[in-house]
Amino acid sequence: MARVVLKNLTKRFGEVVAVDKLSLEVRDKEFVVFLGPSGSGKTTALRCIAGLEIPDEGEIYIGDEFVNDLEPKDRDVAMVFQSYALYPHMTVFQNLAFPLECAKVPKAEIKGRVQRVAGLLKMEELLERKPRQLSGGQQQRVALGRAIIREPQVFLMDEPLSNLDAKLRVYMRAELKNLQKEIGVTTIYVTHDQIEAMTMADRIAILNEGLLQQFDSPDGVYSKPSNVFVAGFVGSPPTNFFDCTLTEEGFLDAGEFKYPLPKDLAEALARTSTSNELILGVRPQHVKVYKQRKAEIGLIKAYLYTTEPLGEMMILDLKVGDNLVKAIVNPDFEVAEELWIEFPIDKVYLFDKKTGKSLV
Ligand SMILES: Nc1ncnc2c1ncn2[C@@H]1O[C@H](COP(=O)(O)OP(=O)(O)OP(=O)(O)O)[C@@H](O)[C@H]1O
Ligand SMILES: [Mg+2]
User: Fold this and answer.
1) What is the pLDDT of residues 237-270, one digit of tens each?
2) How far is the CA of 252 from the centre of ligand 2 (A)?
3) 343 part of a folded domain
4) Closest ligand to 81 CA?
5) Residue 33 sits in a domain of what CATH number?
6) How far is the CA of 39 from the centre of ligand 1 (A)?
7) Domain count of the chain?
């Protein structure tokens, strides 16, 4: 059982709180991604788990063992970094065997384990080559192999695919996910790439400024964002936001438009929000665009600003007052200068403006 438990993990660098009271549990065999913008504390958190940083506060458990006081080498974790330094003068076989030789594993056993890992990573044919005779993706696979071969309880990976070109990254993403499931090792994977996070993770921990924003399945962070930050960070193009006021009559007044709410929702919002200042969020994927006004209420007049054709879909940039609203439509959508848009009530997010937290 190799779960990883963090309790109130805190790491400061002078004035900067890099990781702020981070508490979460990574389950045995789970693939968890730490996702967040640059400087959000992902690497620092990972390095604390590896034992490469000493936390200022908090507890770290690997399996059921309290590991704060253990040296990195005694934590039974393997870390893969963005820049994977292979030994250039050694063959792939020797690179893979090296960690085992250091651990004084008998020669005969080393050979078997190298073969097994080479098989897992489909690089049996590459064992006699030197790193410079390999492509970037192959080199990255050797680096992964070197981490796997020690058969650690936990993998810690810090943007291991970011040095690869886009095509190879997409390929390796699937390889890595498949490999992780096959060998069933608890994995924490750091990235700032939300597509990587969404496609690979069992659960995603979203960090911002050292604080955990949400810890949930990919679908959970996408469709039920817990706050404005998560709604804006996950999904592409980003969620459209409008500042608005909840009126006595149960409308959301955004200035340029009034958005009608069902009575029970308006009442629930009035009850749960700290004031009548709210933020309405709607994803470009959920904005409905019409050429003609269909209903008396609920439709919002918008002016075409520009179009962004993307092949299989098209992004419309629309002006609603001073706001720019992005909407995704079919590529054959016939555009016009004046359009009508709708935000389906079951798709909108509502946040408390003061706290940023999701309401109802
Ligand atoms: N050794 C250090 N000394 C001082 N400040 C540090 C140190 N390491 C990290 N920081 C600061 O701590 C914060 C978190 O950094 P961290 O490297 O964990 O972010 P990150 O989420 O991994 O970012 P990135 O996506 O850019 O890799 C940042 O403000 C960073 O400047
Ligand atoms: Mg980092």
Assistant:
1) 999 999 999 999 999 999 999 999 999 999 999 9
2) 40
3) yes
4) 2
5) 3.40.50.300
6) 5
7) 2
